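Researcher: I'm preparing a figure for a lab meeting and need a structural model of a single chain. I don't have an experimental structure, so a prediction will have to do for now. The sequence is pasted below. Please return the structure as C-alpha cells so I can convert it later.
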Amino acid sequence: MKLDPAIRDQVLASVPSLRAFAMSLCGNVDRADDLVQETLLRALTHIDSFQRGTNMPAWLFTILRNQFREEYRKRRREVNDTDGHYAATLASHPEQPGSVEFEEFRTALATLPAEQREALILVGASGFSYDDAAAICGCVVGTIKSRVNRARARLADLIAIDGIDDFGPDRTTRAVVYQDCPRADRWFI
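Model: Understood. Here is the structure written out cell by cell.
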C-alpha cells in the first residue's frame, strides 16, 4: 500500500506531540516510545479509516490513548516480578491423584457402619463438637468419641494411610513440583 505523502507528513509532524503525550501518560521514556510506535503502527494499518479533512493529530491521540488504556487494563492484572522470586513460590501439584484419592475415600467412607460414618461426618466434616454430635445422635459423648476414633482408624486402614506423609502428593511428586521452591518444606509440616 502506497501512503499519500500529505498524510505521511501529517503523521510525522504529530510524532513529537504524541511522544510528549505518551510520556505524560507513562512516565517512562522507553514505555512512551513503545506506545508511540504501537500507535503509529495501528494508525498506518488502519489509515483507510481516517477521513480526509478531519484532524489527524486528534485521530492519532485517540489511538494512543486507547492503546494506553488497553495495555493498562492488561497490566493491572499482572504482578511485577522482574527477578522471578514471586513466580518461584507458585506451585501446584497435579490434580489427577487427588481425584483418584477422593474417590477411594468416598468408597471407603461408604463401607463404614452407619453410626461411625454419621459420627465422623458430624465431628470431622461438619465441625460439630463431641457434645453437639452426641446430642444430635442421642447418645453419650463417650460413644461419639469411640465411634469417631473407630471410623478414623478403619478409614486409615481402608485407604492405606500410615502417616502424615501419605496426605497430598507422594514424596516423588512433591520433589518434582517443589524442587525450586524454598518454602516447600513448610507446606507439608
